[in-house]
Amino acid sequence: MTQANSNNLIYLVKQGDERAFETLYHLYANNLFVIAKSYLRDDYLAEEVVQDIFISLWDRRKDLHIRGNMGGYLFKMVKNRCLDILRKPRKLVSMEDEATLLENKINFKALQDKEASFLLEEELEKRIEEAVALLPKTCKKVFLKTKMDGLNYKQTAEELHISVKTVESHMTKALKHMRLHLREFLSCFSLIG
Amino acid sequence: MKDETIVKYIREELEDNERQEVMRWIASSEEHQKKYNFLKAQHTVSGFNRPALDVEKIYSRWKKHDKKQRQRKILLRLTSAVAIFVLMWFVVDMLPSSDTKKDVVNTKEEKMVEVVTPRGISREIVLPDSTHVVLNVDSRLKYPPVFKDSIREVFLTGEAYFEVIKDTRLPFIVHAGDMNIRVLGTSFNVRSYSGDSDTRTTLVEGTVEVSSDDVAPVKLKPLQAAMLNHGQTQLKIKEVSREEAVSWKEGKLIFKETPLEDVLEDLERRYDVQFEIGSAVLYDYLFTGTFDNLTIDEVLRVLKISSSINYKKGKEKITLY
Q1: Residues A53 and A119 both lie in one domain
Q2: pLDDT tens digits, B176-193
Q3: Same domain for A114 and A171
Q4: Matching PANTHER family, A to Z (chain A) (predicted)?
Q5: How far is A21 from chain B (nearest CA, A)?
């Protein structure tokens, strides 16, 4: 996603466009969850962080001032929430106490690390671009026109010389595809080592 | 230490003692930590674009949350629009009459503002008189958009903590279950979930007067709780600790010899999860313990360690056995 495109999405969200928001959600929620889970090491907590971020994004959409790209902004929100959680010494009434505290401490430092943050932020945005690139051709055109350039369905239909119905079905397909397609990266991205 | 071992640790492939060893090694120097930071970030990135989250499910949850909020806003706007219309109608229609104002107030009073919290989400509310209310999860508070001259009256189902702004001319009354709680200016907690066996008021500061249709008013002292069973004509009073009084507000759940079923009900409200009791003996189990700002995963672990209650996390339900 180019910066201009990403900014269009932000612009639409600011206007209260729920579809634009849904796109953002589908594009980023999974990977933000991966980050939160990796550092917090708790599924429920990670899910809560992601949900909170999007709720606050939507609630404060009118006052958003986002410099740079959306991924960078969302990453910073996840990072800050996670750091807040890891910083808080939570009381655990169990033997796992010390181990958990130590783990939180090293993960706090790991998430604070500038270079690590840079890597996470870069990759977050890159992976979204890749997912978009993998969409089937017409689907991609429709997706980019509507979501990124901010055209409504009718304008998109006119510009691509297809019916509004077709635009709608392509959009549904695109969002579904984005989700399913993410699996393909499994093969492209081998684990470390 | 080999990178491989650290990666194994990150992937959670190590036994407990090895795990601890790696963690201590990482924490032992800046250089080690740095190495871990990088490997951890790399491993995190490798998890990108692999479906880990049911996006559809949590998106629909967001939509529900948003819809409720919007409905509330629309309701509020509608209420004020209706109120203004009624006000104008009365002013125009009954200009010569002297008791116009009372009618208007009565009409407005019927339109109550209603704040509802779903499971898992609590909320702070400021009432028209600047009284501060923290509404616990799965609760409902009704109050008029404007308090009329002689009384401040609110209706509660569920649980809420009140910090009432002092105003001696305007008594503040909470109706909850069978209980009426009358205060001037003070902080107190009221709990009255429909599943609970009683309604309970706990005073933190100041004074309150608790009564019901069948019970004469009783004054509470700070850190006393008054409990009224449904249909009963007598209040039970007991002393509580400050911590017990408003624990939920600080994210704590405190249980003292509480039947497991009741504990689970509280957990369901707080974490928006569903429990299932998979073995009959658990119905008799009394739980004592404190969950201090734990996540549901941690709560389950504590249950397992402290009470040897096992659990299985399914898609919809958590089964205890």
Answers
A1: yes
A2: 988 899 887 788 889 888
A3: no
A4: RNA POLYMERASE ECF-TYPE SIGMA FACTO (PTHR43133), RNA POLYMERASE SIGMA-70 FACTOR ECF SUBFAMILY (PTHR43133:SF46)
A5: 10
**For residue B219, pLDDT beyond 70:** yes
Q: Please give the tally of structural domains in chain A.
A: 2
Does A185 have pLDDT greater than 50?
A: no
Whether residue A140 is found in the same domain as residue A97:
no
Do residues A172 and A103 both lie within one domain?
Answer: no
| Statement: residue B271 has pLDDT above 80 | yes
Which of B20, B43, B62 lies at the smallest CB-CB distance from A54?
B62
Residues in chain B with CB shorter than 8 Å from the CB of A107 are: 40
> Does the interface ipTM go beyond 0.90?
no
Domain that holds residue A164: 134-193
Between the alpha carbon of residue A130 and those of residues A185, B50, B233, B260, the distances in Å are 9, 13, 69, 49
- Taking contacts as CB-CB distances below 8 angstroms, the residues of chain A near B292 are 90-91, 93
At B2-13, the pLDDT tens digits run: 889 999 999 989
Q: Which CATH class is domain B121-245?
A: mainly beta
Does A83 share its domain with A60? yes
Chain B nearest CA to A84, separation (Å): 14
Chain B residues near residue A176 by CB distance under 8 angstroms: none
Q: How far is A140 from chain B (nearest CA, A)?
A: 18
Nearest CA in chain B to A98: B20
C-beta atoms of A182 and B50 within 8 A: yes
Residue-wise pLDDT for A93-130, tens only, equals 455 567 888 888 899 999 999 999 999 998 888 877 77
Out of A129, A144, A172, a domain closes at A129
Residue that has been written with the tokens 């692999």 in this structure: B50
Residue B282 near residue B291, CB atoms below 8 Å: no
The CATH number for A179's domain is 1.10.10
User: How far away is chain B from the Cα of A114, in angstroms, using its nearest Cα?
Assistant: 10
Where in chain B does DSSP place strands (E)? 113-116, 123-126, 132-135, 140-143, 152-163, 172-176, 179-183, 187-192, 198-205, 208-212, 218-220, 224-229, 236-239, 252-259, 275-277, 286-292, 311-313, 318-320
Domain termination residue (choose one: A84, A111, A129) = A129
Determine whether the interchain pair A106/B23 forms a contact, defined as Cβ–Cβ distance below 8 Å: yes
What distance in Å separates the CA atoms of residue B308 and residue B321, rounded to the nearest whole number? Answer: 9
Q: B251-320, what's its fold? A: Phage tail protein beta-alpha-beta fold (3.55.50)
